[in-house]
């Protein structure tokens, strides 16, 4: 067991193997069908899985890394900027991408993509859950845009990731770091009503 848990790759592989066994049990033991309902479930699961990765790392940056950085001795800060942050940013941005893609596919499979994107306008606001889900989806799209087109480019400058900006001036580096932080905080702010809108669409309103 230690051989599995001491290696992240092995841990993740075993996690997916256990998930596969659950799927086999669903089909073989309980007679589950691999039909349209299953594919909707599968993309919902992938959407949640991706979202946990994305929002988890967003909150790690804002609740742990950023507030802790001022108290870290200067000689230790390069370890964060050169090793931990770039790896976290990789999973952060691709978690955001996977969350958006699986969310759009899920809405399409459920047949309410246009209604949700229009905040319910296309269906005359006849389905309150579509409006609630649409608000959450648009918050998520704004957050995704911030990650890929504001936070990530500025973090590349601030941390000189992959030595892409070796000659960047100190003031430009500081400005880029602040810009990335402000938009990361913006995403943290939006994540709270976004999650409320997503959950309320399932729990407080009807999606059909």
What does this protein look like?
With 208 residues, the protein is mostly helical. It has 2 domains: 1-32; 34-203. Helix content is 78%, strand content 0%. The protein is built from 7 helices and no strands. The protein has helices spanning 2-5, 8-28, 36-68, 77-109, 113-117, 128-159, 170-203. The model has no long low-confidence stretch (mean pLDDT 93).
Top keywords for this entry?
mainly alpha, 208 residues
**What are the low-pLDDT stretches, counting only 5+ consecutive residues below 50?**
none
Tally of contiguous helical segments:
7
How many discrete domains?
A: 2
CA(first)-CA(last) distance: 46 Å
Mean pLDDT: 93
Radius of gyration of CA atoms, rounded to a whole number? 20 Å
Counting helices, strands and paired strands, the structural category is: mainly alpha
Give the helix proportion (percent range): over 70%
Form type: flat
The ordered H/E elements are HHHHHHH
Largest sheet: none
Number of strands: 0
Q: How big a fraction of the residues is strand?
A: under 5%
Q: How would you sum up this structure in a few lines?
A:
The chain is an all-alpha fold and 208 residues long.
Which helices and strands appear, and what pairs or packs with what?
Blueprint: H1 2-5, H2 8-28, H3 36-68, H4 77-109, H5 113-117, H6 128-159, H7 170-203
Helix pairs in contact: 3-4, 3-7, 4-6, 6-7
């Amino acid at each position: 067991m230690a051989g599995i848990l001491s290696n992240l790759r092995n841990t993740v592989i075993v996690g997916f193997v256990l998930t596969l066994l659950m799927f086999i049990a669903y089909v073989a033991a309980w007679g589950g069908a691999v039909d349209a309902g299953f594919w909707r479930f599968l993309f919902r699961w992938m959407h949640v899985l991706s979202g946990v990765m994305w929002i988890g790392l967003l909150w790690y940056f804002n609740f742990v890394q950023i507030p802790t950085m001022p108290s870290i001795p200067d000689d230790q800060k390069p370890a964060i900027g050169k090793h931990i942050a770039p790896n976290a940013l990789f999973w952060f941005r691709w978690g955001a991408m996977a969350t958006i893609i699986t969310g759009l596919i899920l809405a399409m499979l459920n047949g309410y993509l246009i209604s949700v994107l229009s905040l319910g306008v296309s269906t005359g606001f006849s389905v309150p859950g579509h409006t609630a889900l649409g608000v959450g989806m648009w918050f998520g799209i704004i957050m995704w845009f911030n990650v890929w087109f504001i936070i990530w480019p500025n973090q590349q400058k601030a941390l000189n990731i992959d030595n892409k900006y070796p000659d960047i001036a100190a003031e430009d580096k500081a400005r880029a770091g602040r810009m990335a932080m402000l938009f990361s905080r913006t995403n943290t702010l939006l994540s709270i009503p976004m999650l409320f809108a997503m959950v309320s669409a399932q729990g407080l309103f009807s999606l059909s």
